[in-house]
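pinned: reference chain
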Amino acid sequence: MLSVQKGICEGSADSLCQMLFIAVDDRFLGTDWPQPSLSILDLRPAGTGRFTAVYAGYREGDNACCPSLPPTPVTFTWSGDRLRPDAIAPGQCQNGC
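pinned: its structure tokens
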């Protein structure tokens, strides 16, 4: 069973450092991205072994309260051996940069 929980980064008093903690059958897989996200707006199931996270779209220099880019939904699918996102969340880059 795929389990997902949104968490706030240690020391983030303003909650603008968030990440998802992901487990399969009570085995911790890791977090959603290598870098924390500024804000995760929504988290919802998307079928068996799938979930969608909606990330706020911050542009460099945006005020933390006011993202200037549209939200980015990313659907993650557990393939049996790894979690596969269908898009890249804001502030992340493909292949670990």
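why pinned: DSSP finds no helices and seven strands in the chain. Residues 2-96 form one domain.
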